[in-house]
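Hey, can you fold this one?
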Amino acid sequence: MNEQNDRKNEQEEISLYEKLVSRTADLLEEGKKTFDEALKRAKEELAAAGDFSREQADRLGEYVRRDLRENADKAREAVKKAVEPLRLAAGVQSAFSRILTSTAETLTELAQRSEKSLEYKTGEITSPGTLTCKDCEAEMHMTKTTRIPPCPKCHKTVFRKSY
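Sure. Predicted structure:
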């Protein structure tokens, strides 16, 4: 019976995570809010509606923030790989290079400051992707939003995510 309650609670929290992501995305699409403002408003709205406790909203909000930062880091790397400066005219190349360098530096600083928050731990909820154990490098492939279990190989609890 306790295991059944745990599964029910897990599914409920996953559903809440997905609601928070969806509402945050809706607010961002309206174009009037930064990510932080949209996430804060989404947490407040869902907590006020009784969907979340304030504690749940804060905890799940950190998961959403962490997942977005991870995606932003991946996007930054993709942009750096996709742009080959030799193809660009000299004047455009210089300006574009400065913009990309500045953007890359800003994103790198953000990634460095948030490195600790990018760790995924057993018991947290995460979106689909591959989690790599930071201890033994075993991979777990998550196909849906779920709660993170311990590493199946070494039973450690700290992971790094890739997509």
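The first strand starts at residue 120 and ends at 121. Let me know if you want another pass with a different chain boundary.
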